[in-house]
């Protein structure tokens, strides 16, 4: 009988040990999973703005957008091209040739709201000063985005430079 109790105790102790070992393994996997999830979230936050942009952040984002989309003298990034609502060309190379060097790299001015939404309007001057409306008021192009830097786009219509809230 004594041998039976000792054998039962050994089996019970082994089961408890395996159970605790399994819990430890699950805990370690969960921690690794949590770390991986945290890494994914950190990367996502780095890739996507999740806070309201400051004025300087909005300007920087717009200047990067204008450059990477081929509007300046900087080379375009074809993998990140954003199409306007109306494009003259469907062929990307022709489109980029048409856009090339039309705007100055640095923003001209800023409006503290975006078209039909809260956000930012960042205005850029045309490189060619002859790019004006028929009534000879100087115009440029406007990048709009929401307050988080999402929904960023080049507005199709020209923007009167005199309409900026703040000249930069």
What does this structure look like?
Mean pLDDT is 77; it is low at 30-35 and 40-45. The protein has two domains: 1-47; 55-167, no CATH class. The protein has helices at residues 2-47, 55-68, 92-99; strands at residues 109-111, 119-125, 139-146, 153-154, 159-160, 166-167. 40% of the residues lie in helices and 14% in strands. A hairpin with a 7-residue loop joins strand 1 (109-111) and strand 2 (119-125). The protein is of the alpha+beta class and 168 residues long. Strands 1, 2, 3, 4, 5 and 6 form a six-stranded antiparallel β-sheet that branches. The chain contains three helices and six strands; from the N terminus they run αααββββββ.
Distance between the termini: 92 Å
| Total domain modules | 2
Number of strands: 6
Biggest sheet details: 6 strands, antiparallel
- Structural class based on helices, strands and sheet pairing: alpha+beta
The succession of helices and strands, N to C, reads HHHEEEEEE
Tell me the radius of gyration.
Answer: 29 Å
The chain-level mean pLDDT equals 77
What is the molecular shape?
Answer: elongated
Segments where pLDDT lies below 50 for 5+ residues?
Answer: 30-35, 40-45
Please indicate the percent range of residues in DSSP E strands (runs of 2 or more). Answer: 5-15%
Percent of residues in helices comes to 40-55%
Q: Compute the number of helices.
A: 3
């Amino acid at each position: 009988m004594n041998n039976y109790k000792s054998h039962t105790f050994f089996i019970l102790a082994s089961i408890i040990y395996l159970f605790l070992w399994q819990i430890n393994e699950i805990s370690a996997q969960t921690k690794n999973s949590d770390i991986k999830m945290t890494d994914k979230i950190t990367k996502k936050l780095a890739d996507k703005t999740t806070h309201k942009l400051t004025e300087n952040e909005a300007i920087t984002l717009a200047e990067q957008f204008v450059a990477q989309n081929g509007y300046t003298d900087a080379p375009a990034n074809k993998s990140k091209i954003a199409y306007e609502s109306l494009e003259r060309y469907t062929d990307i190379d022709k489109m980029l040739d048409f856009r090339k060097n039309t705007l100055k790299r640095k923003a001209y001015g800023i409006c503290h709201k975006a078209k039909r939404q809260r956000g930012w309007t960042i205005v850029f001057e045309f490189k060619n000063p002859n790019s004006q409306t028929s009534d000879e008021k100087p115009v440029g192009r406007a990048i709009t985005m929401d307050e988080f830097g999402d929904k960023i786009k080049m507005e199709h219509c020209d923007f009167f430079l005199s309409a900026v809230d703040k000249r930069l």
